[in-house]
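To close the chapter, one final illustration. This time we ask the reader to focus less on the individual chains and more on the assembly as a whole: which components sit near each other, and how the overall shape emerges from the parts.
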Amino acid sequence: MSVFLSSLGFGIISAAVLAIATVGFTMQFAVTNVLNLAYGSVMINSAFVTYFLNIHGHLNAWVALIGGVATGSVASYLLNRFIYTPFQRRNLAPITIVIVALGVDLCGTFGLQAIVGGSYFSYRQSLGREWHFLGMYFSTLQLTIIAIALGVMLAVAWLLRYTRLGKAMRATSANPNLARNSGVRTQWVISTTWLISGALAGLAGTVFAMNTGVFEATSAQLYIVLLLAAMFLGGPGEPYGAMLGAATIGIATELSAAFINPQYKMVIAFLILLGMLTFRPYGLFGSERTA
Amino acid sequence: MASQVSAGYDGRAIVHGIDVEANPGRVVSIVGPNGSGKSTLLKSLVGVVPILGGAVSVGGTDITNLPPEKIATMGVGYVPQVDDVFPPLTVKENLEIGGYLLARHQVHERIGAVLEFFPRLKRMMTRKAGKLSGGERKMLAMGRVLMLSPSVLVLDEPTANLAPLVATQLLEEYIRGFADAGSTVLLVEQRAKAALRISDWTLVLGGGRVVLSGRPDDLADNPVFVESFLGGGAHL
Ligand SMILES: Nc1ncnc2c1ncn2[C@@H]1O[C@H](COP(=O)(O)OP(=O)(O)OP(=O)(O)O)[C@@H](O)[C@H]1O
Ligand SMILES: [Mg+2]
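The assembled structure is written out below.
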């Protein structure tokens, strides 16, 4: 198997994980106006709840995942309710929320490290058999992750386009005052958005940990770079853009890892992000007014 | 409807002690120079800007400082001066959000009724609102607010940026029409002459206060009013 194809395979799986994470991240940013830099720590904390249920609760990893998803959802809701919203109410400069989020991220990551320590962890889970496609190998676990990502993408696309809640989310994102004048309870819409996007963070964190196989408290610390790159590539607030951005970043970073140096993964993502911010600040698919 | 209302931003009043009385079947218009507080007054009535003193009621129910989404449920529809549509949403989705409080089958029904009213929108249902022309966009903004069949319509300069003919049609056919059909219309309008023609009562704001008010005929005879608002339009 060629190095190119094997790293493309890795890229596809990374992209699947990143797509789940980015869709939640961009949804938060678009609807609630918070650039939640603590997203990575929500992911890894959720992954550890799954771990706890899997190892100490003796649950199958896929069942334990439900606990991880619930953790991400509730943690994100509480984060908004008790930290971001009170700061937003004070009408401070937008940079304040970014700094607060950064602080939350550090507390989330190193708080977790204080509890679980600095060692490495893995789920008790089989990878399943190997499948062979077009010169690439995937384990059953990896194929399952890709299938979950596709399912999540379809579900989010359907939510935003066809449901009353999804339309209210897009309306709230585009013009919150007008949404309220139309009878939309935007506070409720925003809370619900945190619950849903937080669930996606929890899901992404768990499949991220499953995919890396071995993880520690700080494993998702730099993930925010990939998230930002994928989000800006697709255009902030554009869920379809987020999917394509995640695909591009996931594959580009894994190919660069194979052909340049794995150490430079984040650097490559960051360079793509810088390039986007310079040449297409609204993303490849975004427009000035985002959805 | 409003009595002794003061309202403004960050606790600082922009409009002071304003009384507005509007009844079903009537158009009440508000005119005044730029920055006189017309939009601020309307925003306070629909819950977007905090009311610092006085009270607002609709049909005997007090709505002072209720959140806008609550006021929307009480039959008050508001078309703001700017940002009056959801640009990334399609025309159809804009109307659906307008009917957010309705049951699903009613939404469908009301969209049909609104399209009867603004047939031009029929051909652009799947277009994004951000891509409409100024006139089409205003029709959509009006259509959105009509989705809930409001009993009180609060309109902030609905004819701004419209061609004179379209503006006249909007005012004389549609807006006067809503009132004739039994709605209460509260209208802020820069085109003072046109506003007087369709109004039952007119308030003139200046520096956040009512400086004149009266029936259009009487105002048209008032030399101060004529000089500042009907005299050649130099002030606009
Ligand atoms: N969001 C805001 N925060 C603070 N002050 C504001 C805000 N919006 C408007 N103002 C101020 O309130 C005053 C009245 O503004 P308002 O928009 O009500 O005027 P207007 O009569 O509607 O003017 P125009 O004819 O230009 O629409 C102005 O001095 C304006 O600068
Ligand atoms: Mg105004």
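Chain A touches chain B at residues 164, 167-168, 170-171, 173-175, 177-186, 287, 289-291 (CB under 8 Å). The beta strands of chain A are 130-133, 136-139. With these observations in hand, you are ready for the problems at the end of the chapter.
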